[in-house]
Every structure is written in C-alpha cells, then in structure tokens.
Amino acid sequence: xxxxxxxxxxxxxxxxxxxxxxxxxxxxxxxxxxxxxxxxxxxxxxxxxxxxxxxxxxxxxxxxxxxxxxxxxxxxxxxxxxxxxxxxxxxxxxxxxxxxxxxxxxxxxxxxxxxxxxxxxxxxxxxxxxxxxxxxxxxxxxxxxxxxxxxxxxxxxxxxxxxxxxxxxxxxxxxx
Length: 176
Known about the structure:
The protein is about 45% helix and about 5% strand. The mean pLDDT is about 85. Helix 2 packs across helix 6. The chain has a three-stranded antiparallel β-sheet. Strands 3-4 form a two-stranded antiparallel ribbon. It has seven helices and five strands; from the N terminus they run ααβααββββααα. Strand 3 and strand 4 form a beta hairpin. The chain is mainly alpha-helical.
C-alpha cells in the first residue's frame, strides 16, 4: 500500500479534498461504493437523501478523486445511468479531526445493525511509549494487510472500526 498522502497547507486541491471527506455522508458514500459501483439514484435511495443533494456530494467526491465514474449503462426504462466506484484515496488521506468524523459515521452506520451482529470489545492497557508504538504499528499493519487483499468474490461486506486513545484513568495510590 502506498504511504499516506502529504498535504501542503494552502494548496487548493488539498483543501478541497479535506473538505470533501469531512462530511459523514460522503464517507458513507465511499463505503457504499467500495466494492461495487452505484449510481447517484441508488446512493440516494440507500442513504435516504434527495437525488439532487446526492448528485452534489457525488460530484464533489468525483472532482476530488475519491470516486470515479464508470462507463454509463442503461437503467430502468432505458435511462442512462452513470455508476461510481470509490478509488481508495480516502484510506491514504490524513484528516484533521478525523476521529470525530469517523465516530459520527460509525454511529450512523450501526443505527440499523442488529445488536446481536455487533462484535465489540473494549480493552484498557497500560503501555510505555515503545509498546504503544508497537501496538499501533501492528494494528495498522493488520488493517493494511486486509485492505490490500482482493475482496473475496463470495464474501460478505463487513466494517471494522477501532479507536485507540489515552484513557482518562489516573494512576491510583497503589500504582505509584
């Protein structure tokens, strides 16, 4: 996998990309287009958004390189439809305040998921700097390994969300 994209402050193209993926709705569009191409109309229906509004978001993602248009096809009643597919660029983009946007997207994504289908865990660790960096590196390597694999033709779509953060759990008297 290629390294993260380096952004240049003040670069209009970089700023447009950051604005494009700072929207939870646009991030959900990218997820829906990750494994199969979808038209504006399909995306609007899946996300419960007006097709005109969705077209604005799709155009923004296309203009900034996050979506690419595929060859037009005939839809219902022979109408011309343009399907779109995610390019994978968002995986490489740094995003200021990324965690808050991703948490919002995650919460939106799981609203309709059956609680029995959510496999969650929460773990507290006490790590020195070396072990923290090792944990983060190994977790990232595992995510990259699976991201780079070809999608399983017979596979189901799954989503993985992780959050690694300082635990606001002060040391107690016994720990000092």
